[in-house]
Amino acid sequence: MYDYKNIEKKWQKYWEDNKTYKVEIDKNKKKFYSLVEFPYPSGAGVHVGHVKGQTAVDIFSRFKRMNGYNVLNAMGWDAFGLPAENFAIKNKKHPGDFTKKNIENFRRQIKSFGPSFDWDREIDTTDPKYYKWTQWIFLKLFEMGLAYEKDAPINWCPSCKTGLANEEVLDGKCERCESVVEQKNMKQWFLKITDYAEKLLADLDDLDWPEYIKTSQKNWIGKSEGAEIDFEIDGFSEKIKVFTTRIDTIFGCSYVVLAPENKLVLKLKAKIKNWQEVQNYINEIKNKTDLERTDLNKNKSGVCLEGVWAINPFNKERVSIFLADYVLASYGTGAVMAVPAHDERDFEFAKKYNLDIKRVIAKENSSNDNNEECYVDDGFLINSEKFSGLTSFQAREKMIIEGQKNNFVEKKINYKLRDWLFSRQRYWGEPIPIVKCSKCGNVPVPEEELPLVLPEIENYEPSGTGESPLAKIDSWVNVKCPKCGQLAKRETNTMPQWAGSSWYFLRYIDPHNEKKMASEESLKYFMPVDIYFGGAEHTTVHLLYSRFWNKALYDQGIVPVSEPYKRRVQHGLILAEDGRKMSKRWGNVINPDDVIESYGADVMRVYIMFMGPYGDTSAWSTSAINGINRFVNKIWSLLEKEVCDELADKETLNILHKTIKKVGEDIENISFHTAISQLMILLNYLSSLEKINKEVFNVYLKLLAPFTPHLSEEMYQRLNSDVNQSIFDFSWPEYDLDLIKDEKVKIAIQINGKLRDSLEVNFDSEEDFILSLAKERELVQKWLENKEIVKIIFVKNRLINIVVK
RNA sequence: GCCGAUGUGGUGAAACUGGCAAACACGCACGACUCAAAAUCGUGUGCCGCAAGGCUUGUGGGUUCAAGUCCCACCAUCGGCACCA
Hints:
RNA-binding; alpha/beta; 4-stranded parallel sheet; 27 helices; 7-stranded mixed sheet
């Protein structure tokens, strides 16, 4: 039996002592940067999902390394975050202590399954040496005008008396106390990711990422091209600017809608006859939670501003103005033109309030269109004066040109993407390095004063005013303005958890540099990340934020590439044996420690990779892991065989070289489960042999090595007593295409496309020869009796199909 | 509602460019070893049929000598977004 307990420990110690996986810049070698998302070190310890990603990155890295690349592969901790803070509040302890303990546990667990990380490059986002540079990047963004402050509503829990991050709000309720979350206006920091919307969108095209991630990001950015149209207001100098992508429908506009928050309404107050009603409506909406507003999908509400009218600039028609909650203040201009006949929402609203429904787009190119339904697609214009008869596409172009000429239309692109809310009213995060001076405004903390260290504090409980707990430390808050020297106050909000993870891949490259975020030389050598493994939950947020930071730094000439991640691979979830998500609540969590205890790290690694396609969700199976245990022990038992130096026979070489080819290609394509099945096929073959050629044996161990590093090292040492190097110092075996060619092939004989018989012939045998052999077969003759051969289809080395009548 | 993904044995799944569907495993059955069990090893295992043979990749159609693979329509499941004008 394979003694995994001792052998795995032995090799882990060997790797650590010999710094086997240490990597330095080596310009004689091609670099390869593989990355896996670094974990948040929770109290629960490493999850099998972490094992999946980390094993994958390890297999890939070891494979690349054996192929001669200088591989950078490191691990770290995304350690700021709420669980640590909540723990601190509850236990009156510093969140850092809790975090430190968790990190130690994570490190121990990860090391116990033997990944090839260069541990000298380990990073921790809560370490001031690390977050010094998170703050430094923030200041760069501030300098670039990409970090700014503005009043914005935040999620406010009235019972916990604190602001909440979006991630802490579940179904409109506070995650901790379940009270309904309110919106509260506060001055907040934002990062202007919208400035990069176009680049973030356009550059997706060149990335080797799964199409579904690209689509998701595209949808998230949500580009839409259209126009802004000015509607004059009868009797006022103010105009209503609306945004639309369907200017072609403008002759069907029967009213204009403002978001209830739109300030314009105050200016119209004097002429609004039903002001009381309007005001009530505004208040009603203000008191609605986000939950209620978005949940009211089916029941749109609104109020008409009686006594005022907007004027459609195309036909000078007077239309009513409404306030309605189905228009979002935060998108476009906060106002829309309503075309009930050609927009579902307007249609619904118009029916409810009995408003005009004018049809201006017809499906077919004919003037009559009696359709009573709402028609939202493009078509041909009708009832649109001189534009009638045009297609929607043509009309949009012409109308925009005409509108531009007359100064009431502007071309406009809008994005769904919003600026990134960057401040949190929390303790356990990077302090935002800004001093607020009544004279100078927001002043950056001078670079030489970084890191601005998170101060020690007595009580982590939020203050209740919506401010961060840092606001309570007068000695920290009160400082002199770095610019004018007068008394000023520090910004007391901290950064969100996303900050540290938005650039950690840059720090791995040069983690101990005290003068720079990373040296130019090292960035130039190692960037970009060649392959990035991770989970599907980061499809939009983390991947988008970190692309944005990288692009901003690229524009400053700090990083050498505009896109950080060349290739992205995401893994599917591992469910519990019962098919549900693993959760403490169900008591169905698989702890990697237990798996390693009963089977060893190599079995766990291979099992997790063999569960199914890497990107698919699959359920844990105790009996299936037993099968892998058998596999690993069967490999071990090869050592009992006689090893010889006699030349291996053709059959052996054939299957061996097929395996070299397939395993290499499968790893490259992230098809680990089929690579493993090929390794099983070769094992079954080797096990059936009387004796094994030593070279063949060695090649097999190398092919196994990325998957079962401990086992392969041990067996390699035992087999080659003269070698005292790691198997990973040797190169990946090469295959010979000539040896892969089969000498004999099985040819299927089909009659009318149905399999009737088969033949074994020499490779590359010709059609005539095979046909004559086939005709002699009894099984074939039976089907050819009294039939006329119409056609012969021959595919070399595969099949012959005889078509008869 | 929109977008995306996926549908193949009892289960996880495989199948290169259209070319012998079910590789490799799990499970199950039988056998060997054992007083017995576990472990291990061996044999078998898509479905119907005694057999010849027939049927089979979510459903229905189509293209083709040949379709899991291509085209059209539909159904189901999962995931994401969700009043973005």
